[in-house]
C-alpha cells in the first residue's frame, strides 16, 4: 500500500471516529415500562392523599389539546387534526388546533413512548413527568408542554340572558363579564344572579354552595367583592 493510500485510510478512520464521538447516545433499549410510568407519576404528583394542587395553575382535563416538545427533537405529539369539540352557547364555533388531545381515558399518545397519563397534572407537573419518561429515549431531555386549547374547564349560564349555554373557561372571567359574554339581560330579567358551586369550600361569600349577586348593587358600588371569578363547573342562574 502506498504512502498516499495509508494517509487517506488514516484520515478516513479519524473522521469516522470523530463523527461517532459527536453523535448523541440513545438509550432507546431501556423500555418505558408500566412500573416506570407509575413511579414517575407518584414522584411528580405524590400520593393521592397528599395531592394538593395550586389553585392558580391550570390542571389538565379530558379533551384538552396539548403540544409536547422535546428540545432538539421537535414535536412529540401524535397529532389529532382539528382536535377540538365545538362548545355550546357563545362558543359554538372554535377553530381547530393542532396537537394531541387528552382522551376519555385520561391519556395522550406521544412518539417513542406511547400512551402516558395527562389528566390531573398541571402543565409543569406533566413536563416534569414526561422528562423522566423521555430520559429513557434521549439524553437529559428538555420537555415543554403547552396548552393549545382548553376543552375541559367549562361553566354553565342559565336563565334570562341573550345567549345562555355552556362556555369554555379559557381565561379568568367574573360575573359581570359573564353577563356581557352572554349578550346581557333579556327584557324579562331582574338584577339578581345566583352562582352554584359544587365545592365552595370556606369562601365566606357563599351560603353553602350558593352565592347571591345583585347587579344593581354592583352598579351602585356596593358589595363589589361578590363579583367573583368563575371556577370550572360553576352554574350561573340569571333571574
Which helices and strands occur, and which strands form pairs?
Elements lengths: L2 H20 L11 H12 L19 E6 L3 E2 L24 E2 L5 E4 L3 E4 L5 H12 L8 E7 L4 E6 L5 E4 L6 H7 L10 E5 L13 E5 H5 L15 E4 L1
Parallel strand pairs: 7-11
Antiparallel strand pairs: 1-2, 1-3, 1-6, 4-5, 7-8, 9-10, 9-11
Helix pairs in contact: 2-3
The CATH architecture of the largest domain: 2-Layer Sandwich
Tell me the Rg in angstroms: 26 Å
Distance between the termini: 98 Å
What is the helix fraction of residues, given as a range?
10-25%
Mean pLDDT: 81
Q: Uncertain regions: pLDDT < 50 for 5+ in a row?
A: 13-29, 48-55, 83-95
Strand order of the largest sheet: 8-7-11-9-10
Shape by Cα distribution: elongated
Order of helical and strand elements: HHEEEEEHEEEHEEHE
Label the structural class: alpha+beta
Name of the top-level CATH class of the largest domain: Alpha Beta
Tell me the number of structural domains: 2
How big a fraction of the residues is strand?
15-25%
CATH superfamily of the largest domain: wza like domain
How many beta-strand elements? 11
